[in-house]
Specification:
This protein is an alpha+beta fold. Helices cover about 50% and strands about 10% of the residues. It has helices spanning about 1-30, 40-55, 60-70, 95-115, 125-135, 165-180, 205-215, 240-245, and strands at about 75, 80-85, 95, 120, 155-160, 185-190, 195-200.
């Protein structure tokens, strides 16, 4: 009986381990259920956009500083709706003008909805920085080739996903979905870094200008503000931005 008791206890301990491991794995799968999965095709589209725009892949700090000085790269502006990962070097908190417009517009709309800010984890990078990054991050994109990182052209930002609620994640996904469908952005939800990686096309700039003008031309809403509900409030991209300008 003693021997049988020990054997039963051993069997119970051994068999319970795979079960706990399976549960942990299932829990992670539930957490990661993105609308925009990273794909090889997405990397190709990002690099095709860089080539269409004839943008350089920024090689080093000297080239980066030249682009800043010329105004080709603009600083992303921190505000109540937008903050930075403290680990992001201030010298790399820059991007192309249309990418800055996108991330700041997203921040404004997100803040109006949740009274919280979004966090930018990464923006422009140089080939040198990307090469160093790949040494300790096996998921980082290459620094060259048809699947190279679009951060190298200054048209991409990474927005913190970790720590957001499910509702906030779904809201951002739905905000980006129509922009993605129109080819204005190319978003990915990275699993290992838990960020929204978003490449922004220069077409976003003209789309933005047209929508701001159209929003201003619309008549005032007839629903009194005190009777407005979430379903009656326009949460589409630029709705709040247009109202503020």
């Amino acid at each position: 009986m003693v021997l049988c008791g020990h054997a039963a206890a051993l069997h119970s301990a051994v068999s319970s381990r795979p079960l706990r491991h399976t549960r942990r794995r299932s829990f992670r799968s539930i957490l990661y259920h993105p609308l925009f999965r990273p794909t090889h095709e997405s990397l190709l589209r990002q690099n095709e956009e860089i080539d269409r725009l004839e943008l350089p892949r920024i090689q080093d700090e000297a080239e980066l500083e030249e682009l800043k000085a010329s105004g080709a790269l603009l600083p992303i502006r921190a505000s109540e709706s937008l903050r930075f990962d403290p680990r992001l070097d201030p010298s790399r908190r820059f991007c192309r003008p249309w990418a800055r417009d996108f991330v700041e517009d997203l921040g404004v709309s997100f803040y109006e909805r949740f009274h919280a800010s979004i966090q930018v984890n990464s923006a422009v990078r140089t080939v040198q920085v990307q090469h160093k990054l790949r040494r300790h991050n096996r998921n980082a994109a290459a620094e060259s080739g048809e699947t190279g990182s679009s951060h190298l052209a200054g048209i991409t930002v990474d927005i913190q996903r970790r720590g957001l609620t499910g509702e906030q994640i779904r809201w951002i996904e739905q905000y980006m979905l129509p922009l993605s469908n129109q080819g204005l952005i190319e978003p990915e939800e990275e699993r290992h870094q838990w960020v929204f990686h978003v490449m922004v096309s220069d077409r976003y700039q003209s789309w933005r200008e047209g929508n701001v003008v159209a929003a201003k031309a619309q008549p005032e809403p007839t629903t009194p503000p005190e009777l407005a509900t979430e379903s009656s409030i326009d949460l589409t991209p630029l709705a709040f931005l247009a109202a503020k300008q």
